[in-house]
Write a structure and sequence with these properties.
single chain, 469 residues, alpha+beta, Uridine Diphospho-n-acetylenolpyruvylglucosamine Reductase, domain 2, Uridine Diphospho-n-acetylenolpyruvylglucosamine Reductase, domain 3, Alpha-Beta Plaits, 4 domains, seven-stranded antiparallel sheet, five-stranded antiparallel sheet, 17 helices, 20% strand, globular, disordered N terminus
Length: 469
C-alpha cells in the first residue's frame, strides 16, 4: 500500500510520517479504500474508517506503532480479518489501525505436548491446514475464517465448543503489546498454574481495549480416528432443543450440535444447493473411535425419536461433511439472500441449557409477531443461539424494531440466568447490555481499563463508553 494523502489529524500525520520513515511507505496507507476496508466488520453497524492503516509484521512493529501513538495521543485499533459482529473495528475516534494480517506464522509446534504458538494474524483455516499433516487440529470454529488474534480478543466460540470449549479454554499464553508500547507475556505452556492473577484470561475477550495481542500459545487436540455427521429434522424448534438438552444431561460427547429453524433451513437450501426437509433441524457431528462414534450416534438417534425427530441423514465422507458444515457457515449469507439488498443484524445470547428451549420459543414468538424477516440458529449444545434480522439500514423504523427485539432477547436471557452475548462480544453495539448484565461490576472493569490504558487510546468506545476517564 502507498501513502496517498495526509491524515487531517495532525497527531496522526506525525505518527504516519514516523512509521513511513522507519518501515517504508508501502507499510502505511491513508488511501480511502484501504481505510474504509479497515473501518467495517460483518455487522449492520456503519463503516467508521481510521485515519491511517499500518501493516505490522512482528511484535516489535506493533510495539513501535503503539508507542508512537501513545506519545502523540493517537487512538489505536487492531485489525485481523474484519469478521466481528458488534462494530469492534470501527475507528470511532479516528487514529491508526494496526493490521496484523501479515503476522500469520506458525512459530512453534509440539505434537507431544499438544500445543503450538502462532502469530495473531494467522486464520483458523491456515493453522489447521498446517497442522493436519501432523495429526492434530485446533477445534474452535466460529464459522468465519477469523484470525486467531481476533478470536482471542472477542472470546470466540463456535460449532465445536460443546465438546472442546471456547477460546477461554484453549489459550495457554499470550504476547501482548500494552498501551505504552511495552511487551508482556502471559501464561505459559503448563496446563495449570497458581502463579498470580490470570492475565491470560483477562486479555481473552478484552476486544483490543487492554492491549494488542501479537502471539498466542494454543491447546491442540489429536485428530479423531472416526468422524461422522448427521442432519435430523424435527416437528418443532422446542423438540429439537429438548433433544440437545437430553444429550448434554446424559453426557453424550457430541462434537457439534447446531440448530437451524425452518426459515434458516429454507434459506440454506436455496443458497447452498441442499435438499434438507424445511423444518427445524439439528446438525450433529461425532468424534472418536469407530465404535464410540457409532454408540454416540445411536444414542442421539434414540433421543431424537423420543421428541418426534425424523430420520438421520448421514454425511460420512470428508467431502460430504465439509459441504454440510460449509452450508452452516454460510448461513448468514443465506439468510441475507431471503431479502436481497438487506443488511444483517446478528445478535446472540447464551442461557443455561435447561432454559434454552423456553428462551428460543419465546424469542421465535416475538420474531413471528414482527414484520422483520429473521432466522434463528446457533450452537445449542452449550446454550448459545443467534438471531439474524434482515434490515434496510436506512429505514429508521426497521432499526427501531430490531433494537426492540434485541433488547427483549437480552432481557429474557438475563432473567433466565444467561448472558447478553455468548461469543460475539460487546464492541460498541452491546455496551448498554453489558451494563444491564453486570451492573456495578462494570466499575471494576473500568478500573482495569484505566490502569492499563490511562489515556483511553486502545480501541476507544468499545466495551465501555468513550468517557471512561
Amino acid at each position: 500500500m502507498t501513502l496517498q494523502q495526509s491524515p487531517s489529524n495532525a497527531a496522526t500525520a506525525t505518527v504516519v510520517e514516523a512509521l513511513s520513515a522507519r518501515f517504508g511507505t508501502d507499510r502505511v496507507s491513508t488511501g480511502a479504500s484501504v481505510r474504509e476496508q479497515h473501518g467495517r466488520d460483518e455487522s449492520h453497524h456503519p463503516t467508521v474508517p481510521p485515519d491511517a492503516v499500518f501493516f505490522a509484521e512482528s511484535t516489535e512493529d506493533v510495539s513501535v506503532a503503539v508507542r508512537l501513538c501513545g506519545e502523540h495521543g493517537v487512538p489505536v485499533v487492531a485489525f485481523g480479518t474484519g469478521t466481528s459482529l458488534e462494530g469492534h473495528v470501527a475507528a470511532l475516534q479516528g487514529g491508526l489501525c494496526i493490521d496484523v494480517s501479515r503476522m500469520a506464522a506458525l512459530l512453534r509446534l509440539s505434537v507431544d505436548d499438544l500445543d503450538c504458538t502462532v502469530q495473531a494474524g494467522i486464520t483458523r483455516k491456515q493453522l489447521n491446514e498446517q497442522l493436519k499433516r501432523e495429526g492434530v487440529f485446533f477445534p474452535v470454529d466460529p464459522g468465519a475464517d477469523a484470525s486467531l488474534g481476533g478470536m482471542v480478543a472477542t472470546g470466540a466460540s463456535g460449532t465445536c465448543a460443546v465438546r472442546y470449549g471456547t477460546m477461554r479454554h484453549n489459550v495457554l499464553g499470550l504476547t501482548v503489546v500494552l498501551a505504552d508500547g511495552s511487551v508482556v507475556r502471559t501464561g505459559g505452556r503448563a496446563r495449570k498454574s497458581s502463579a498470580g492473577y490470570d492475565l491470560t484470561r483477562l486479555m481473552v475477550g478484552s476486544e483490543g481495549t487492554l492491549g494488542i495481542i501479537t502471539e498466542i500459545t494454543l491447546r491442540l487436540y489429536g485428530q479423531p480416528e472416526a468422524v461422522s455427521a448427521a442432519v435430523c429434522p424435527f416437528p418443532s424448534t422446542v423438540a429439537a432443543v429438548r433433544t440437545v438438552i437430553a444429550c448434554i444431561q446424559l453426557g453424550v460427547p457430541v462434537a457439534r450440535a447446531e440448530l437451524m429453524d425452518d426459515r434458516q433451513v429454507e434459506a440454506s437450501n436455496r443458497y447452498s444447493g441442499l435438499t434438507n426437509e424445511v423444518a427445524p433441524t439439528l446438525l450433529f457431528e461425532f468424534h472418536g473411535s469407530p465404535a464410540g462414534v457409532e454408540e454416540q450416534a445411536r444414542t442421539v438417534a434414540e433421543l431424537a425419536a423420543e421428541q418426534g425427530g425424523g430420520s438421520f441423514h448421514w454425511a460420512t465422507s470428508a467431502q460430504d461433511r465439509a459441504r454440510l458444515w460449509q452450508a452452516r457457515h454460510d448461513a448468514y449469507y443465506a439468510a441475507l439472500a431471503l431479502r436481497p439488498g438487506s443488511k444483517g443484524w446478528t445478535t446472540d445470547v447464551c442461557v443455561p441449557i435447561s432454559r434454552l428451549a423456553d428462551c428460543i420459543e419465546a424469542t421465535r414468538a416475538d420474531l413471528d409477531a414482527s414484520a422483520i424477516v429473521s432466522t434463528v440458529l446457533g450452537h445449542v449444545g452449550d446454550g448459545n443461539f443467534h438471531v439474524v434480522m434482515m434490515l434496510d439500514p436506512d429505514a429508521d423504523e426497521e432499526i427501531a424494531e430490531a433494537t426492540r427485539l434485541n433488547q427483549r432477547l437480552v432481557t429474557r436471557a438475563l432473567e433466565m440466568g444467561g448472558t447478553c452475548t455468548g461469543e460475539h462480544g460487546i464492541g460498541y453495539g452491546k455496551i448498554e447490555s453489558l451494563e444491564q448484565e453486570h451492573g456495578e461490576g462494570v466499575a471494576m472493569m473500568r478500573a482495569l481499563k484505566r490502569a492499563l490504558d490511562p489515556a483511553g487510546l486502545l480501541n476507544p468506545g468499545k466495551v465501555f463508553r468513550a468517557d471512561i476517564r
